[in-house]
Amino acid sequence: MALTPKNELSREEKRAKQENAQQEALLREVDEAVRQSDAEQFLDRWGKPLFGLLIAGLVAFGGYLYWDSRQEAAMERDSEALVGALDQIQSGNIDSGYDRLEELASREGGGAAVAAAMMRAGIAEQRGDSEEASTIFKRVADNDSAAPAMRDLARLRDVALNYDSMESADIIATLKPLAVPGKSYFASAGEFVAHAYLDQGKRAEAGAMFAQIAKDENSPESVRSRARQMAGVLGVDAIEDVDAVLEEQGVQRDEAASENAAAATE
Q1: Cα radius of gyration rounded to whole Å, the chain
Q2: Buried-state track 217-255, b at ≥16 Cβ within 10 A, e below 16
Q3: Is the model more confident about 3 or about 99?
Q4: Does the pLDDT at position 43 exceed 80?
Q5: What is the DSSP string of 75-108?
Q6: Which residue of 90, 114, 197, 213 shows the fewest CB atoms closer than 10 Å?
Q7: Torsion over CA of 55, 61, 63 and 64, rounded to 10 degrees?
Q8: How many angstroms separate the CA atoms of 243 and 38, rounded?
């Protein structure tokens, strides 16, 4: 009697395997149909909103690219205007430079507009038109779009321009926020505030301010030296390192003696 080889499937096993394959194919078809139905339902419900969102995103991106290109073009024009005005001023054509800056300085924005305004104020001051210069300085100081350092500088320049006609209380109120160690214009603002205190007879406050300036290593040495002398006159010790100050004064005396000797030999 012949035996069926072990690697040969029986008729029942073949039929079972064929049925399993058919069932798997049917399940795949059903799954694909369900997926397609879900996709159609999803598109029916969310297709239009998603399409609108996509269009809005593309429009926004295009608008940003357009805005960015306009900004770059405007910056280039502003830079050219500033350079052109500077060329005129350096060539001695101050009036021409002043006029070239008018349009740019009249804007309310920051950056180039503020720089142009400060340049016009400096030219007006040089011309002797203190009123015009003061008006421009005040406008920059009140410009919220300007950098804080530029606003502080404009405020300081305006006080320097009008110091003799201002009340000491107004000087202190304007510059005291700037007369703080660490601020960009501490030394210059502090000197004005200290002298305003002296005008009010407040020697202690003035001496303390001069001492702060004298001890501030970030302040210019010329300003520190003046402040040190004023603090000493007011009876305030403003010297932290006595030996360093004496050495510096000795060097200055030696340099002065050398210059005098050289001048005498000539």
Answers
A1: 40
A2: eebeeebbbbbbebbbebebebeeeeeebeeeeeeeeee
A3: 99
A4: no
A5: HHHHHHHHHHHHHHHHTT-HHHHHHHTHHHHTSS
A6: 90
A7: 160
A8: 88
What is the average pLDDT value for the chain, to the nearest integer? 76
Cβ neighbour number for residue 192 with a 10 Å cutoff: 24
Joined together, the tokens standing for residue 93 give 């054509």
63 vs 2: which has the higher pLDDT: 63
Tokens of 203: 């020697």
Q: What b/e readout covers 120-153, taking b as 16+ CB neighbours within 10 angstroms? A: bbbbbbeeeeeeebbebbebbbebeebeeebbbb
At residue 8, φ and ψ (nearest 5 deg) are: -105, 125
235: phi then psi, degrees, rounded to nearest 5: 80, 25
Contact (CB, 8 A) for 169 and 200: yes
